[in-house]
Amino acid sequence: MEYWTSQEGDSRQPAGLPADWPSATPVGPVPGIGNAALNLTDRSLRDMTSGPETCYRVRGGNPLQGTVFVQGAKNAALKMIAASLLAPKGRTVLRNVPVIEDVRRAVELAQAVGAVVKFHEAERTLVVDASHLTSSVLPAEITRRFRASVLFVPALLHRLGEATIEGIGGCNLGSRNLDFHYRGFARLGATVEEGENQIHVKGGNLRGAHLYLDTPSHTGTENLIMAASLAPGTTVIDNTALEPEVLDVIAFLTKMGAQITGGGTGFVTVHGVSELAAVEHTVMADRIDAAVFAMAAAITGGELSLVGASLDHFGVVRWKLEQMGVEFASQGAILQVRQERQLRPINVITSPYPGFATDLQSPIMAVSCLADGTSYIRETIFDGRYNLVGELTKMGAKIEVAGNAVLVHGPAALKGTEVIAHDLRTGIALVLAGLAAEGETIVAPGYPIDRGHVSVAARLTTLGADISAEPLG
Ligand code: EPU
């Protein structure tokens, strides 16, 4: 089999983005926004409630070998569940839905507003009947655990004329960051009122408008396309996101009858239609899950066959891994990945697709601990994504935060210890580190990891890893 390898040598590249990019730029007053000034302070993940107390126990040292099945894409499936509520009759069938906690929360949210939803987990198939929506309230007990709740607003606006998101308010319109969504709804004719503990959006008669995003927001693009799909007239959205999941969501909405052009160009046009239909769709593979398993091969010096992975969806991630010495080969629809040589250091600057995915910044930081030399990593999408530094340091990594970047001095001999999964991607990165560490690593809580990755312990065990998911304590 022929593997693709990168050229030897220094992979360092000049920093290309302004230091303050992409802070949310407040736009001028928008008719319909009820609050005088949007608070743009950060809201991090700290107010997210967690699930049952579990942990992952990893004993490192085994090179991974074998075949792994890449899950369906979380960041496409969640949007499709919300979009299926736009159909006023019939049943939507979604296949290849990942069995993860975030999907379970999305199902609960759809049920809370009256949709009849059956998640056939063994078949990874979701059936949604949204014929009778009964409530416009997205309740706090779910919205506190599920950040993508705002995706349900377009369906509630079109079907019931209003939507109330409980449990968030105040600074929640600020950074991390939903202001593009609310400003977009307002430009389409909705009224947005921010209360003490809830946001109320009213507007049964949305109309097409010219919208723009200050930065190409992934969910913002999808949400505004959904809102525009049933709004009479033409909506043009400037500076839209290019992520493969956005294109999959557009494909799903198009099957439903939406008229959308320009996906993947940065400028999307939507001609509003009068009704959308329930359809069947297979969710694309999860490129983040695929890349995490590629990195699992890299960090353990293993060789894996990834079923369902597409290198085309890796964007810059592919080239960065190749520069580190990871080898890829396509065998028909299977992607082979192996790591045989000493890992080389890397320069990574996260940016919107096809740039280096922010969701893989933590995993590549873990991998770069094993590289021979100093790696440079800079996060530009989300603040609060250097929480991993302290945890990897506990494991013996040598990492310094230098201004808004991180320098990882490798190779380090990682040692297992107890570490904290501050969020989903920190969590899975610590599992990767644990796979390469001497002794036992306990990653807790397990819930953030289960929010986004299917059966992590079972899939890694099949590949030869020594890992278990256990109750904490
Ligand atoms: N932003 C704003 N205002 C907004 C929306 C975004 O200022 O109204 C800012 C954000 O604060 C951030 C940047 O724009 O600095 C990009 O955010 P984006 O809206 O693109 O992120 P998102 O749509 O909220 C999705 C994924 C994230 C992934 C990002 C970037 C879903 C459900 N979430 O978030 O996934 O990191 O795009 O690709 O699709 C994850 O899976 O772990 C995860 C966090």
Structure in a nutshell:
The chain has helices spanning 74-83, 101-112, 140-143, 153-160, 179-187, 218-229, 244-256, 287-300, 316-324, 361-368, 388-394, 424-436, 447-452, 456-462; strands spanning 54-59, 65-69, 91-95, 116-120, 125-129, 137-138, 162-166, 191-194, 198-202, 210-212, 234-238, 259-261, 267-271, 280-282, 303-307, 327-331, 334-338, 347-349, 373-378, 398-402, 405-410, 418-420, 440-444, 466-471. The chain has 473 residues and is an alpha/beta fold.
Index terms:
473 residues, alpha/beta, four-stranded mixed sheet, 24 strands, 28% helix, globular, binds uridine-diphosphate-2(N-acetylglucosaminyl) butyric acid
Characterise the protein shown here.
With 473 residues, the protein is of the alpha/beta class. It has 14 helices and 24 strands. The protein has helices at 74-83, 101-112, 140-143, 153-160, 179-187, 218-229, 244-256, 287-300, 316-324, 361-368, 388-394, 424-436, 447-452, 456-462, and strands spanning 54-59, 65-69, 91-95, 116-120, 125-129, 137-138, 162-166, 191-194, 198-202, 210-212, 234-238, 259-261, 267-271, 280-282, 303-307, 327-331, 334-338, 347-349, 373-378, 398-402, 405-410, 418-420, 440-444, 466-471. The chain has a 4-stranded mixed beta sheet, with helices on one face. Strands 2-15-17-16 form a 4-stranded mixed beta sheet. The longest helix is centred in the middle third of the chain and has 14 residues, at 287-300. It is globular, with a radius of gyration of 22 Å. The model is unreliable at 5-49 and 169-175 (pLDDT under 50). Bound molecules: uridine-diphosphate-2(N-acetylglucosaminyl) butyric acid (EPU).
